[in-house]
Write a structure and sequence with these properties.
Elements (H helix, E strand, L loop, with lengths): L5 H19 L3 H21 L13 H6 L13 H4 L2 E5 L2 E5 L4 H7 L22 H16 L2
Antiparallel strand pairs: 1-2
Helix pairs in contact: 2-6
């Protein structure tokens, strides 16, 4: 059996590099895969009522839980608008993920009693973000995309 020639090896490498260059000229399929992955993991976290790091969300205050008209057993769910608002979008600069609802930030970071309106004094319940496992999965998605799997 003969060894492949250097020219044949370089031809193969050049073809593979061209394939990668062609792929990165259109990242839409990659962004779609990552965006869909992020939607899935965030919806699962909502079901589990936990942060990206796997920590349970702070429970509802008992007085709020008693007067909450629906979904008393669920945190960050009154009418489910926040979870349903999760989306992703992308352009030539990259991929973004989150919600356009302004109140998503106060639920994530929490609020203080002196913030208007005075009902803003709620504990932080981090709901948006990625875990180390998510980062690993995103790298796997990227690798599969580049290797055409």
């Amino acid at each position: 059996m003969t060894k492949p020639s250097l020219l044949a090896e370089l031809t193969t490498i050049n073809r593979q590099l061209k394939d990668v260059a062609d792929k990165i000229s259109n990242l839409q399929p990659l962004y779609d895969q990552i965006g869909e992955y992020l939607l899935t993991v965030h919806h699962n976290r909502w079901r589990l009522q936990q942060s990206p790091q796997g920590l349970p969300w702070q429970p509802l205050a008992s007085n709020y839980k008693q007067r909450k008209p629906v979904n008393q057993q669920w945190i960050l769910v009154l009418n489910d608008h926040l979870r349903q608002s999760l989306t992703y979008w992308y352009d030539e600069q990259g991929l973004a993920f989150g919600t356009a609802l302004e109140y998503g930030a106060i639920h994530h970071y929490g609020g203080q009693q002196d913030m208007p309106p005075h009902l803003a004094a709620i504990p932080a319940r981090p709901w948006l973000g990625v875990s180390q496992d998510d980062i690993s999965e995103i790298y796997d998605i990227l690798g599969d995309f580049l290797m055409d799997k």
